Amino acid sequence: MRVVSGIQPTGNLHLGNYLGAIKQWVAMQDAVADTGGACLFFLADLHALTQPVVPAELAANTIEMAATLLACGIDPARSILFNQARVPAHSELAWILNGTARMGWLNRMTQWKDKAGKDGASQSVGYFGYPVLQAADVLLYKATHVPVGEDQKQHLELARDIATKFNTDFAVDLFPLPEPLVSKAAPRVMSLRDGTAKMSKSDSSDMSRINLTDSDDAIVQKVKKAKTDAEPLPAAFDELAGRAEARNLVTIYAALADRTTDDVMAEFGGKGFGAFKPALADLAVSVIGPLRNRLAQLMADPEAVQAALAAGAARAADLAAPTLGEVHRAIGLQI
């Protein structure tokens, strides 16, 4: 089993990022390593170039993101952690696969259609073609599984289409077809101010999210002021239908505590938010506090983070080289 996944280097990660992706990565890392497989997690700094960037910010965000992953439990001894740009084979394979991918396939990508309907003509060529780079990211390592959210499953289907066409066009059995890993344990974490909107760092209100760098006092205040309703919690999670904010807070509690939502309801059913919120705040502080402190230690030594990325990139490059060599031979670039 070989798992590959990437994340764009943006600053100021929040609880939604941790519970929805990073915590799942840590669990995968341990499970896959125990079976003798490999997990590759990369900072998608090449993907970041499809939109306008501030160079100093991109560089700083890459270090901060890597430090955050390390602080949250990604272990360079059990996984391969690197930033994409350090392994040029990603770019080379993406260019080669541009000859296999078809314009019609990319035009059907939902995220592109959303952009094209508004200002597609002003978007970069890279933004149109970045699903091909995503395909290269996973096919380069002959990934067997790719953790994806529901909104990214279409892009993985494209990677499978590209792999199938390449194998067929050149009469090779080179690329396996990667399977999606959609974790049912990964919650959809919503805003603390609006239970119908995802928690996001782009929200103008900092009170809408819990940042992984928030102090204990800030976490407590944000949970205390989170939007709720006046009704007590029922005995079962299904009974929270129509109560978006209440569902969100119970979901967050369950994810932080590694418990089911119904288990949480069994404990707090019949109680109001005056009892539930303090318990949630204490739990959030107990989980986020150590992550925040570890992150601060890592950010105080950016050279060590750089060294970890360089070591990971060397391991990734060693895995990538044989695949790229096979691709070259298949298409006639090596004679």
List the helices and strands and how they pair.
Blueprint: E1 2-7, H1 15-34, E2 38-43, H2 45-48, H3 55-72, E3 80-83, H4 89-97, H5 103-107, H6 110-119, H7 125-139, E4 145-147, H8 153-169, E5 179-181, H9 216-224, H10 244-257, H11 261-268, H12 273-299, H13 302-331
Produce a short descriptive summary.
The chain is mainly alpha-helical and 335 residues long.
Would you mind describing this structure in some detail?
- The chain has 335 residues and is mainly alpha-helical.
- The protein is built from 13 helices and five strands.
- The protein has helices spanning 15-34, 45-48, 55-72, 89-97, 103-107, 110-119, 125-139, 153-169, 216-224, 244-257, 261-268, 273-299, 302-331; strands at 2-7, 38-43, 80-83, 145-147, 179-181.
- The strands form two sheets. Strands 1-2-3 form a three-stranded parallel beta sheet. Strands 4-5 form a two-stranded parallel ribbon.
- Strand 4 (145-147), helix 8 and strand 5 (179-181) form a beta-alpha-beta unit.
- The longest helix is centred in the C-terminal third of the chain and has 30 residues, at 302-331.
- The chain is globular.
- The protein starts with a strand and ends with a helix.
- The relative contact order is 0.14.
- The model has no long low-confidence stretch (mean pLDDT 94).
Spatial ordering of strands, largest sheet: 1-2-3
Total strands: the figure is 5
Strand content: 5-15%
Structural class: mainly alpha
Radius of gyration: 21 Å
N-to-C series of helices and strands: EHEHHEHHHHEHEHHHHH
Rough outline: globular
Mean pLDDT: 94
Main sheet?
3 strands, parallel
How large is the count of helical segments? 13
Amino-to-carboxy terminus distance: 32 Å
- Helix-residue proportion: 55-70%
